[in-house]
UniProtKB/TrEMBL annotation:
This is Growth factor receptor-bound protein 14 isoform X6. It comes from Danio rerio. Keywords: Receptor.
Length: 405
C-alpha cells in the first residue's frame, strides 16, 4: 500500500549544504465501483490534493463534494479524511495486516452544516452560553462552534456498548470542547455525575458500516471514537443513535470540536481560489478549442462558442452511447426507437437492479443532503422504476410508472 523513499539531494547545492527534496510514496485509492489506481505522490500530500489529482485523472466535475475516505475493514468502520490532513500520516497509523484502504467518492454533506447549521443541530440537542440569549440564526450558531471563547454543548441519549460485554445500554451523553461524557444519574449534568469517555486531540470519529451485524447494535446508526494509534476493536468507544439525523449531529459536532476553524478554512478554500483566479499552469494555457466539424479546422477564440461546442459534443457522445446500449445488434430501423427507451441507462443517476436497502446505503454514503437522488428498477413491480431521494435528511422512495405513447 505504501512504499516510501528516503530524502534525496537535488545535486545543485554544495555537498556541505545539500538541499533535500521531499520523499515520495505510492498510495492506492479505490473508487465507488471498487476499481483501484496506484499513484506516486510526495510525502506531504493532503487529502484535498489527492481528490484534485483524481478529479483530473478521472475527468470528474469538481463540485467541491469529492472526498477521501479511510476505511478499516477488519473493524467495519470508515471516516472522512479532512481536506487538510496528511494522507501519509493517516496511512502510518495502519497495521501491516490491517487491509485498510482509501476511497475516493462524493460526500455532499461534508460541509453542508456551514450552509444550514440549524438543520444539522436540532434545537433540543444544543445548549449555548447565556450571552446569546438563547436565540440564534444560522451564522450565530456556527460561530459558537468556531469561536474558542463560546461554550456550545451537544446533549441527548445514545446507546453505548458496555466494555467487555455484548449488551448495549442507553445513557444520557454530553459533548463539550473538553470531551465526551455520560451521566451515571439520569440526565444530570452535575460534575459528580458526569463520567469522562473520550477527548478528540488524539482520536477520530468513525461511522460503523454494519452496526447491527458486526457489533449487535440496536439500530443501524452506529458510530465510534477511535484513538489515532489504536487498531484494536477493544479500544473503540462504540455508540449508537436512534436515527440518522441524531448520529449526524453528534459526528458533525465532534469534527467541529476537534478541528474548529480549520474546517471552515477547508470549506471556503475552493471558493477563494475561484475568486482569485490564479495563473494557470503552462499545460493548461497551451490548451485551445478547435472546431473539426467543417471542411477546414479552425481555432475557436470566443469562450462562449467554445463552451457551446463542448456541450454539444458531450450531448452527441451521450446519444451515441445510448444508441450503442440499446441496439444489441438490432437492425438500424429499430435502433432509433430503442434509443428513447434506453436513454436512462447512460445516465449516472440510474442504478438498474438496486434494492431498496442498497439505495438507502448509497445515498447515505453520498451525504444526507436534500436533493440527492437516484433512479432504479422496481423489484416489486416489473417494468416500473423507483425514485429514491433525500428530503429533510430522510430517504424516501417513489414509484414511477412509464407511460406508453
Amino acid at each position: 500500500m505504501l512504499c516510501t523513499q528516503p530524502y534525496i539531494s537535488c545535486g545543485a547545492c554544495p555537498k556541505s549544504q545539500p538541499c533535500l527534496l521531499p520523499s515520495t510514496g505510492v498510495i492506492k485509492v479505490y473508487s465507488e465501483d471498487n476499481t483501484s489506481r496506484a499513484v506516486e505522490v510526495p510525502s506531504d500530500i493532503t487529502a484535498r490534493d489527492i481528490c484534485q489529482l483524481f478529479i483530473l485523472k478521472n475527468h470528474c466535475v469538481d463540485d467541491h463534494s469529492w472526498t477521501l475516505f479511510e476505511q478499516i475493514p477488519h473493524l467495519s468502520i470508515e471516516r472522512t479524511i479532512e481536506d487538510h490532513e496528511s494522507v501519509m500520516e493517516v496511512q502510518s497509523g495502519w497495521g501491516m495486516d490491517s487491509h485498510c484502504c482509501l476511497y475516493f467518492r462524493k460526500n455532499y454533506a461534508k460541509y453542508e452544516f456551514f450552509k444550514k447549521p440549524l438543520d444539522f443541530f436540532p434545537e433540543h440537542m444544543v445548549s449555548i452560553s447565556s450571552e446569546t440569549n438563547g436565540i440564534m440564526n444560522h451564522s450565530q450558531l456556527i460561530q459558537t462552534f468556531l469561536s474558542s471563547s463560546s461554550c456550545p454543548e451537544i446533549h441527548g441519549f445514545l446507546h453505548a456498548k458496555e466494555h467487555g460485554r455484548k449488551s448495549w445500554k442507553k445513557f444520557y451523553f454530553v459533548l463539550r470542547r473538553s470531551g465526551l461524557y455520560f451521566s451515571n444519574k439520569g440526565t444530570s449534568k452535575e460534575p459528580r455525575h458526569l463520567q469522562f469517555i473520550a477527548e478528540f486531540s488524539d482520536s477520530d470519529v468513525y461511522t460503523l458500516l454494519s452496526a447491527k451485524k458486526v457489533y449487535g447494535a440496536p439500530t443501524d446508526y452506529g458510530f465510534c471514537v477511535k484513538a489515532s494509534k489504536s487498531s484494536s476493536a477493544r479500544d473503540l468507544k462504540l455508540l449508537c443513535a436512534d436515527d440518522e439525523q441524531t448520529r449526524t449531529c453528534w459526528v458533525t459536532a465532534m469534527r467541529l470540536f476537534k478541528y474548529g476553524m480549520q474546517l471552515y478554512q477547508n470549506f471556503i478554500q475552493p471558493y477563494q481560489k475561484q475568486k482569485s483566479s490564479p495563473m494557470r499552469s503552462i499545460s493548461e494555457n497551451s490548451l485551445v478549442a478547435i472546431d473539426f466539424s467543417g471542411h477546414k479546422t479552425r481555432v475557436i477564440e470566443n469562450p462562449s462558442e467554445a463552451l457551446s461546442v463542448a456541450v454539444e459534443e458531450g450531448l452527441s457522445w451521450r446519444r451515441k452511447s445510448c444508441h450503442r446500449l440499446s441496439s444489441h445488434g438490432s437492425p438500424s430501423a429499430s435502433q432509433s426507437s430503442m434509443s428513447s427507451i434506453a436513454i436512462h441507462m447512460a445516465q449516472p443517476w440510474f442504478h438498474s437492479k438496486l434494492s431498496r436497502e442498497e439505495a438507502q446505503k448509497l445515498i447515505t454514503q453520498q451525504g444526507l443532503v436534500d436533493g440527492v437522488f437516484l433512479v432504479r428498477d422496481s423489484q416489486s413491480n416489473p417494468r416500473t422504476f423507483v425514485l429514491s431521494l433525500c428530503h429533510t435528511q430522510k430517504i424516501k422512495h417513489f414509484q414511477i410508472v412509464p407511460k406508453r405513447i
